[in-house]
Amino acid sequence: MCGIVGYLGPQDPKKVIIEGLKKLEYRGYDSAGIAVLHDGKTKRIRAEGKLKQLEDKVLNENFNGNLGIGHTRWATHGPAVEKNAHPHQVGEISIVHNGIIENYLEIKKELIERGAHISSDTDSELVAHLINEEIQVTKDLLLAVQKTLSKLIGAFSVVVLWEKSPNELVAFKDGPPLIVGINEKSSEYFVVSDVQAALNYTKNFVYLEDREIVHIKKEGIKYYSALGAPLKKQVITLDWTSSQVEKMGFKHYMLKEIYEQPHAVASALQPHINMQTLEVNLNNVGFENPVEEVLKKIERVMFVACGTSFYAANVAKYLIEQLARIPVDIDIASEFRYRKPMIPANTLLVTVSQSGETADTLAAIRMAKEKGALTLSITNVMRSSIDREAHGHLYMNSGVEVGVASTKAFTSTLALVNLLAVQIAKARGVLNKDAEQTCVKNLLAVPSQLEMVLAFDKYFSEAAKKLKEFKGFLYLGRGVSYPIALEGALKLKELAYMHAEGYAAGEMKHGPLALIDSKMAIVVVAPTDELIDKTISNLQEAKARGGKIISIGSGENLALKSMSEYYLSIPEANWMTNPIISVVPLQLMAYHMADSLGFDVDQPRNLAKSVTVE
């Protein structure tokens, strides 16, 4: 998620804001910027790339004001270029924004009709325009923000600076977190998206709820509802243990790891993509010979994995067979050895294991090597047992995953099997350069698309209160979405201990229809692809029998939306990357269901992170 730091106090705002942004680097970002008052004017500095680029630009800049805002951005609306970086400044107003403005097209049209000059590709800049329009009339920052908030639809958190009021910040949220830090002894105030950014300066924080506004002035803080009613807020003193610090302010490790997925996916992709040519290159996987030479000889691919990793392998089968036109087998590792598998010559056997220590998967790779197969491991732990056994190595690069139920390791694996599908297709001569570049562009868009999904986390928290009343859950998907339905059902079983089954949507008539009544929830993964019409037809059968439909679709799919109790719109994407995006809502749903039931999300009963015995 984008990082926000706002500061009002006696210290150098540049120093405080840059230090705060560094604490938020774990979230991932592709540009950064600050805006600080100087001589009664806003001095704004932005940079593409990492914070080092911004630090270099501000190194010799001096500011004599005591008020500023800063931001790290993952590109969503508009590419990662300087004009789209935050803060956005319109007239006397500067803002930083995290989230999505759903009605930005309507707002943009109205602004242009009123003669506004829009200089970026973002939805964020439009918020600055609206507040700047209001400030010209009200001459009151708080009132201007209240009037603007009523015009916004979406999930957002915003901090606003008005250069004519050098001792005032106003911030508001509806969705993504926004937290106020208070140090009354030193008369310092902070507005941050994560307490990590201000922990060096204070332990006292106020957590804003949705559609609340904080008005910070040098003489104190006041809180208001969106309608202007004064609020009383509790100040929480954080006396964190080392474990709580590691959670970065999230309630559970799992939720933190769900939010780390844009960064995790980008980290998985980065070593294997040439950003100048937009080509995939897996020559760094460790095979003795060049990867194209090795893969050109492959006649069959076999995947062996367990649990969530097995569902990632299922996705890989769809990707590789359709893109590279080569047969792919998938096996549960615990069954693989005992069915006495045939492993033909020129087979590539791929194992998937987050820990790299899964006992059944380790035994499978050893057996495959004995039979002469070329082996490739996909793991998150370098020099783990499976990694050491394999001929070639792909790394998830997800960072430590503490939650027992895998999240970011799964999405990183899906990114890697996309790359593997492209590389095999190239080696076999069935993918031209233009098609390869299109695949790469689609993959590079995924981190931003994940950001857009995460911005709607609050809706899952609200929906969980009603969803937990269902007696069971049937997860459906077709094509490449079928393994995602299986993974969604597994997550609910792992975390909430509720009955859930994953099915191919076309199998409804072969048994599952008998389960359906008004107490059965139907969760369908249905992003727009060539099978969407068939999926909707399957759902009609479920709805006719009283099933309550919870659907995940692309954009405004009116047909899917009209038949659903709950409809979540995910960004429109390519069929190959849809699984990475559509699994995140299922993770959030399972997380919030389990949390609302009071279960230990990070350590579900009877389960272990790594199964190192058979």
Number of helical elements: 21
Radius of gyration, rounded?
Answer: 25 Å
- The assigned structural class equals alpha/beta
Extract low-pLDDT stretches: none
| Distance, first to last CA | 39 Å
Classify the helix fraction into a percent range: 25-40%
| CATH topology value of the largest domain | Glutamine Phosphoribosylpyrophosphate, subunit 1, domain 1
Average pLDDT, to the nearest integer? 91
The backbone outline, from C-alpha atoms, is globular
Strand and helix map with partners:
Blueprint: E1 3-8, H1 13-23, E2 31-38, E3 41-48, H2 51-58, E4 67-73, E5 88-90, E6 93-101, H3 104-113, H4 124-138, H5 141-149, E7 154-162, E8 168-174, E9 179-183, E10 188-192, E11 204-207, E12 212-217, E13 220-225, E14 230-231, E15 236-237, H6 242-246, H7 253-259, H8 261-269, E16 273-274, E17 279-280, H9 291-296, E18 300-305, H10 307-324, E19 328-332, H11 333-336, E20 347-353, H12 359-370, E21 374-379, H13 385-389, E22 392-395, H14 408-427, H15 433-444, H16 446-454, H17 457-467, E23 472-477, H18 482-496, E24 500-504, E25 520-526, H19 532-544, E26 548-554, H20 558-562, E27 566-570, H21 578-596
Parallel strand pairs: 18-19, 18-20, 20-21, 21-22, 23-24, 23-25, 25-26, 26-27
Antiparallel strand pairs: 1-4, 1-10, 2-3, 2-4, 5-6, 6-7, 7-8, 8-12, 9-10, 9-11, 11-15, 12-13, 13-14, 16-17
Helix pairs in contact: 4-5, 8-14, 8-16, 10-14, 10-18, 14-15, 14-21, 16-21, 17-21, 18-21
